[in-house]
């Protein structure tokens, strides 16, 4: 079995170009055994969330060892009491989102320019739709999609960029004349300018109090304060060209001379991949939510990478652990250790391939010293059996 597992590691490393494990089942067992000695009540219980708990407990079919059960219980306790969003809070935030979204949508459909631009129905995206929001409702993303004719569009990559960085979109379609520059490139800030009046009008007419519209170069945002809970709704323009989707990207003065940048979005494909496991198995989402909560409590360490980096590591790990049983409750401690080892390996090699664009390294551009420092921190946690020390809950809950 050890030889088979070693061969799997080699094959996996060839496919993903970043995940090379050098541990044995014995060493992993020792890690889990040591966690048995930790205080299982180290994280204070804020509340017991009913969401996902029944599914998690019901999916456990295997009989874990006592040591594995101990770490699993610590992880699940942290998830239930802290990382998972309180259902009532989520429902209230979603209710506000629906009202603001509906009001803005109605304003836009009354404006004939957006019909000429072939605007589609707004779509919620991101962690709220994936069930990956943590601690409390914070940021909601809503796409404002526009359909472009592929035969009248051109997608240009800047010569200094890799294939997942910002792109230039060009169209000769006269309907987009107010969004183009002199070279027919589509400029996100010009589209934002066209959307701005209807957006501000919709916010002013909204029946909800404590709304503040904020205009950014690549998005429109509403900052909301309700019952001492602050969160934001981001409306992001998206251009659909055939089966591909591009969203407005923040300009980078070092790479481009103008603010006409877009980047390809894979959010719909990512959501589909995350939902491919059996509906009763949600261990992969639990692990990512736990780590996202950990990231909030260790900003100086794990803040070096975005939540998208960690999501990408999980997606690669899901390709390696392909059975639904690999992601049941009883296996959460093992998968969490796998996740940390993969993270350390990526940082050590400074290589994390984008899940859909394999030739794109998501760690490119990060400081070698910073990645090495984080790799050392992760390896210390794993090597010294201190996983429980990550389960902090200092980040404000409101």
Highlighted features:
398 residues, disordered N terminus, alpha+beta, two-stranded antiparallel ribbon, single chain
Give your account of this protein's structure.
With 398 residues, the chain is of the alpha+beta class. The protein is 44% helix and 14% strand. The chain has helices at residues 2-16, 25-35, 53-58, 66-83, 87-110, 112-116, 127-130, 188-205, 267-274, 283-297, 299-302, 307-320, 332-349, 368-383; strands spanning 123-125, 139-148, 153-157, 167-171, 211-215, 220-226, 229-241, 244-248, 262-264. Strands 1, 2, 5, 6, 7, 8 and 9 form a seven-stranded mixed sheet that branches. A two-stranded antiparallel ribbon has the order 3-4. A hairpin with a 4-residue loop joins strand 5 and strand 6 (220-226).
SSE diagram, text form:
Blueprint: H1 2-16, H2 25-35, H3 53-58, H4 66-83, H5 87-110, H6 112-116, E1 123-125, H7 127-130, E2 139-148, E3 153-157, E4 167-171, H8 188-205, E5 211-215, E6 220-226, E7 229-241, E8 244-248, E9 262-264, H9 267-274, H10 283-297, H11 299-302, H12 307-320, H13 332-349, H14 368-383
Parallel strand pairs: 2-7
Antiparallel strand pairs: 1-2, 3-4, 5-6, 6-7, 7-8, 8-9
Number of strands: 9
Estimated share of beta-strand residues: 5-15%
Average of pLDDT: 78
The main sheet comes to:
7 strands, mixed
Q: What is the helical fraction, as a range of percent? A: 40-55%
Ranges with pLDDT <50 over ≥5 residues? 1-64, 253-257
């Amino acid at each position: 079995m050890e030889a088979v597992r070693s061969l799997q590691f080699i094959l996996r490393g060839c496919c993903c170009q970043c995940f090379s494990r050098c541990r044995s089942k014995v060493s992993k067992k020792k890690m889990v055994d040591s966690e048995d000695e930790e205080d299982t009540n180290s994280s204070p219980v804020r509340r017991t969330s009913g969401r996902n708990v029944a599914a998690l407990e019901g999916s456990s079919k295997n009989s874990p060892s006592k040591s594995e059960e101990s770490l699993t219980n610590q992880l699940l306790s942290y998830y239930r009491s802290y990382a998972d969003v309180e259902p009532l809070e989520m429902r209230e935030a979603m209710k506000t989102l629906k009202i603001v979204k509906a009001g803005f949508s109605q304003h836009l459909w009354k404006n004939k320019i957006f019909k000429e631009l072939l605007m589609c129905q707004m779509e919620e995206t991101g962690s709220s739709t994936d069930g990956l929001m943590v601690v409390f409702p914070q940021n909601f993303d809503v796409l404002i999609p526009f359909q472009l004719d592929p035969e009248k569009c051109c997608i240009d990559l800047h010569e200094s960029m890799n294939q997942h960085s910002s792109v230039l979109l060009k169209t000769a379609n006269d309907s987009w004349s107010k969004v183009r520059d002199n070279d027919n490139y589509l400029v996100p800030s010009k589209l934002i300018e066209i959307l701005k009046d209807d957006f501000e009008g919709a916010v002013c007419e909204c029946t909800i109090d404590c709304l503040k519209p904020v205009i950014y170069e690549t998005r429109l945002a509403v900052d909301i304060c309700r019952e001492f809970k602050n969160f934001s709704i981001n409306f992001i323009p998206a251009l659909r060209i055939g089966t591909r989707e591009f969203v407005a990207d923040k300009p980078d003065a070092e790479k481009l001379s103008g603010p006409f940048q877009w980047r390809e979005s894979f959010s719909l494909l990512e959501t589909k991949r995350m939902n491919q496991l059996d509906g009763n198995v949600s261990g992969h989402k639990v692990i990512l939510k736990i780590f996202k909560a950990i990231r909030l409590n260790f900003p100086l360490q794990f803040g070096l990478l975005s939540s998208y980096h960690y999501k990408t590591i999980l997606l690669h790990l899901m390709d390696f652990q392909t059975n639904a049983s690999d992601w049941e409750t009883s296996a959460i401690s093992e998968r969490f250790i796998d996740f940390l080892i993969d993270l350390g390996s990526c940082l050590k090699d400074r290589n994390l391939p984008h899940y859909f664009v394999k030739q794109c390294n998501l760690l490119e551009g990060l400081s070698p010293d910073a990645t090495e420092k984080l790799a050392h921190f992760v390896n210390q946690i794993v090597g010294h059996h201190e996983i429980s020390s990550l389960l902090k809950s200092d980040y404000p809950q409101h």
